[in-house]
Amino acid sequence: MTDSALPRLAITLGDVAGIGPEVVVRALADESIRAVCQPVVIGDETILQRTANCLGLTSSLDGIEKVVVTTPGLGDVKLGTIDARAGAAAFDCLTTAINLALSGQVDGIVTAPLNKYALHLAGHDYPGHTEILAERCGVREFAMMLYVPSSTDIPVCEPPVCQPAGIKGPHGLAVAHTTLHTSIASVPGLLSQDRIADTIKLTNSFLRRVGCDAPRVGVCALNPHAGEDGLFGDEEARLIRPAVESLQQTGINAQGPLPADTLIKRAVDGEFDGIVAMYHDQGHIPLKLIAFGHAVNVTLGLPITRTSPSHGTAFDIAARYEANPTGMLEAIRVAARLSQTPPPAA
Question: Structure pTM?
Fold first, then answer.
């Protein structure tokens, strides 16, 4: 922790052609944010001020500390378009924030979304934020988690589709991903007993960090019906079950492999505190259905705290200035909370 009474959080603008600057400004206009942290905005000051002017929220920037990162031609980027200049700026803002966190000048990072194609056009060949953070922090064991805090009571889906049913677990619900930004065809080859075990351990550690003294972790199968005794694949018997059993022997309360389609329901009902998914959509689809806009992206395994909203750049609405800042607000609140209990030493 820095010496300040409230945690200092570096907040990046993300891809400026998307809704990143808008949700940052809208979040800064929410009085509750200054009650939980000292925001430090990382990005182009002209873009930030222009966004505040368009929203009629110029006062939201009063007293806000800024670290200016300037990219030539960034002011000419059109909202809703893929532009290498925006990708370059997003990368530079992120690396600036990482350096501030690693040097102890801020207590955590909250990132607005970037566009992966714009990032590649700028010459930065990464799948996304998570991989950049892991490389810059020098870690090999990391994972992406979507986390719905216990303070958020979100219905499973809106009527009339079904009756509301909030997440019943006392510590919310956390879903970590064993693999992430890769094709479905690549997933089986990327899975290993060690990789699955590492993700379970990271999930268990995170849950303890948010106050869960005895985490209950459910581990998804890869194949339908948990492989149906090998009928639909052998990854369950060959990789997932051995990983789970090895960790059970160390005292971690993990169960699996369990059919993914029913595991999420059991977790929502409070039977599990965390879930380990085998691939991106296996974890993302159900959690976004349950808590779209409220789920927070947390990068596990880093020596620093990093969160972000679970939504993307939303180029389709960027020029309308009607973005909902709930995801950014939740990401800031979770980062502020996590900064009080820093990640365990590697």
Answer: 0.91
